[in-house]
Write a structure and sequence with these properties.
Blueprint lengths: L2 E2 L4 H6 L18 E5 L6 H17 L3 E5 L6 H8 L7 E7 L1 H7 L12 E17 L8 H10 L2 E5 L5 H13 L3 E5 L3 H9 L5 E5 H9 L3 E7 L3 E2 L19 E9 L4 H16 L1 H10 L3 E4 L1 H16 L8
Parallel strand pairs: 1-10, 2-3, 2-4, 6-7, 6-8
Antiparallel strand pairs: 4-11, 5-8, 5-9, 5-11, 5-12
Helix pairs in contact: 2-9
Length: 321
């Protein structure tokens, strides 16, 4: 049995890398850097950033000031990031697939794509899970759930339309003729309260959102939508193991800048963020949270995002576009 560990293979390969700051960046940064987070305080993106930033600040020598800009499925913050000067003093977390679905969905008419960002480093890849209420009696495992959902309409909570939870639910409907109907919430706290309170039938979420509740017995994760089991919930099998292929789901969170940042500044930021992510204190706290650090930079990060964009394009019909 394989399990997903806290650091991906790509991040392990990056551990011995040494970064040299170019001479052009000798005076940068000279003042605090703003870091836009497009979701509310206390959410997984916000918490992960607050764990990471002290180590990055030590590398940069200046504060990283978090500014939460929730709303519009993340696009309040991302719009502000895109409209910020490309001077290296405004960065932002980007969350996929929400970023990608937000500019591909034609109803929003956003003239934006990946080329409008400078990607610094991916921080977290958080795989999807399917969970049920701890007192659920109609189904107790994925086989029973799928069989029941093929004959009955079931409500399924997500953290928002066209996000990874919603897409995973639609994939299950397409591949296995289930009848999950989305109940979109405003975030992980409301989503978890919905399943634990019995207000929805099923919960589509992520390891980072749900692993503690599962380990504490507050809900029951019955499958992980990942290529391998997670070290955070090793008792939970993958959908593939259980005979349900074709449904892999994740949410990735990384750091980006507006297009046009000086290459020397981008390289210095990449070095600082990678070192911050590799910091043992950061790694230990992220493990406590059940968040998988997945360091990707340069072409590896870009390729990850391009692959995700292609996967979203393949679902346009399913998403009603």
């Amino acid at each position: 049995m394989k399990t997903i560990t806290t650091i991906s293979i790509l991040s392990c390969l990056s551990l011995p890398m040494m970064f040299a700051a170019p001479a052009a960046a000798d005076t940068y940064p000279e003042r605090p850097i703003s870091a836009l987070i497009s979701f509310g305080a206390g959410g997984n993106t916000d918490v992960g950033a607050r764990i990471l930033f002290p180590g990055v600040e030590r590398e940069l020598g200046v504060p990283l000031n978090i500014i939460n800009r929730p709303g519009g499925g993340g696009w309040v913050g991302w719009t502000q990031l895109l409209n910020s000067p490309s001077d290296g003093y405004t960065l932002g977390y980007i969350n996929t697939p929400n970023l990608i679905t937000g500019y591909l969905d034609p109803q929003y008419r956003r003239n934006v794509d990946l080329d409008d960002f400078e990607f610094i480093a991916n921080h977290v890849t958080d795989y999807g899970v399917i969970s049920i209420n701890k007192n659920e009696t109609r189904f107790s495992n994925i086989d029973e759930l799928v069989e029941y959902a093929q004959s009955n309409i079931l409500t399924a909570s997500t953290t928002g339309a066209n996000g990874d939870d919603h897409i995973a639910m639609l994939k299950m409907n397409r591949h296995y003729d289930t009848q999950f109907v989305p109940v979109h919430t405003t975030g992980t706290a409301e989503q978890r309260a919905a399943i634990q309170g019995g207000h929805v039938d099923v919960n589509f979420s992520n390891v980072g959102d749900t692993n503690m509740a599962h380990r504490n017995g507050d809900l029951n994760i019955i499958a992980i939508m990942a290529p391998e089991r997670s070290a955070f919930i090793p008792d939970v099998p993958t959908l593939e193991e259980l005979g349900y292929s074709g449904v892999i789901s994740w949410s990735a969170r990384g750091i980006a800048a507006p297009k046009g940042i000086d290459p020397a500044q981008r390289e210095l930021l990449e070095a600082a963020f990678v070192r911050g992510m590799q910091d043992p204190e950061h790694m230990a706290k992220m493990e406590e949270m059940g968040l998988m650090v997945d360091i990707r930079t340069g072409e590896a990060y870009r390729e990850m995002l391009e692959e995700e964009e292609e996967s979203v394009r393949a679902l346009e019909g399913l998403l009603g576009w």
